[in-house]
Known about the structure:
Pfam families: Ig_2, Ig_3, Ig_C17orf99. The chain is mainly beta.
Amino acid sequence: MGLLLLFTSTLLSSYFHPWIVVNAEPYFVLRAITLTIEPGANVTRDTSVTLRCHASISSSGQEPLSREYTLYKGSERIYNKVMSTSEDFLHQLPNARLSDTGKYKCEIRIKDKSKTSENVELTVTGLSKPVLHVNNSMVSEGEEVIATCMAPGERGSFYFYFYEDSKEIHNMQASSNQAEARLSINSVGSHIIHCEYAVLVIPFVFKSEQSDTLKVSVTELSIAVSLDISPQHNIYEGDQIDITCSVINFPQRSYKSNLYLSQGDKILKVEEKTTFTHSMIIKAKDSVLFECGLEMGNVKKVTTKKVSVTELFSVPTLTMSPAEVFQRDAITLTCRSENYAPQRLKDEELTYSLEPTLNLQEHGKGVYSVKATFRDINITCIAKARDLMKQSEILAVRPKVRASRPRISVIGRAIIQQPITILCQSDSGSLPINYTLFKGYDALNTISVKDSFQQALFTVTINRADEIKQYTCEADNTKGRMQSESSDRLRAFVTEPLKNPALIVIPEVEQIFEGGHLSLICTVTGTPPVTFKFYQQGNKDPLHTTTSNENHTSYEVPRLSKAHSGKYFCEADNHAHQVVSTELVNIEVRMAIWKKALIGGSCLLALSVLVVVCVLCFKSKRGRETYSPPASQTSFV
């Protein structure tokens, strides 16, 4: 009955209050999460460090929410824990080490919500002193020493360094706090060794102090090597020598060893024996220092011996005469060994030859003649005697090309009494080429052209047009050994500057009337084309401009007026760019003749009328004085 009443009550409540949710989960807000380091962010080695993660959470429920904490060092997750209480999450770092140095952060996750704290940096200082052990403090030459270096109580990623007499001889990386190395101490005597280690805390490396030193003594083995060469004296190149390389006091124990013989950088023979003999033909150019050596594990024993070898004949030299040749020139090639051993070698045994052979003509032993070709060639001389052959250095024959007949020309314009630039140039020829400019038979100047971009440019001045033909030039690159090539005479158009300007007026000045025609003719002497400009004084712009291939031109005014009166002049210019100007010419436009006649007639007519009027007035006055008419007549009149 009670269950029925409870069910009925719940059903009615849901019906009349539908907004009420039965068994609803509590709502929560993650407000903040902080990470702190206790007792502090900077601690020394062996300090117990606590990382405290505190979360601020607001919730609508009464019960603590289940939460998951994750602790990170850098980007690496180092610890994870699920808690159902509201207490802070604590992570212990007992006996902190330098490897614990780094940036930490804490993350909390509740259901589908998470929040991460800011990074907090922990710095741990101090490293333990390394400890070094060796398996044996007294070893024989070539025997290895096993050394162990330890970093007590440290953890992390390590680098270990081993030193012999303060010089690093070995290093290695290890993930544990100790490393074992096999050290080879080759020199005999007492040696001081120590070790150090470094802890890697990305991106930094922290190095420890050095360990205590240990003394290791190395005793020498009684092994030695012997080197015998026969013969030892009066050795000439081409002789055979016998070399014996052997080991003295080889140990009874079976050791893997190599006995070798070398000459300079070349290994002549290697054997796994205690003795051997090597025979060879000696050459003077070979290294005369021989080495016999024994390699047995880390043990190396060496002895050397030097042999004096006399040349049978010297390396030949090849010379050319003359030292400078031109194409098709005859040259002499001489091949000679300056020294040879007459007590061992007869003169006729020593022969010479050239490579390539070319079209050689022999003129005695080692002397040849040939004509220089049109191309460069490398020649070597070979001297032979018995089984020996020696080759000279390469002689590069570079036949020069004779300078071709030069061409002479003017750069720009040739203008009288102005600087003229003359170019002398050969189309072909080996540099340097000396160019000389002549006027008639007189040499004026010489220019040496040494680079392909350089030109032989001469500057002269002439006073007459026909002077230009007197210039020639020569090109020479044989240093006077051959006749120089000479150019043709210089031919160029010569510009004469303008002079003697004159302005002619047609008709004459006294006959210039209104309505008439005026011609202004400007003349000069000089080289056309000429540009003429006519001006009226007071006007900066020319009245007329024209270019003529004649030395004169005209300017026409077809119908004159009083406005044309004034002073006129003309300017002329040609390629010499020396403007000349005429003197001013005064032109007065007179009144037209018909106007003068009209004015004269008008004046005569006016005078005639005035005379008639005066006569009539005189006669009228005289008549009144001699006759007085009656009153009636007077009134009538």
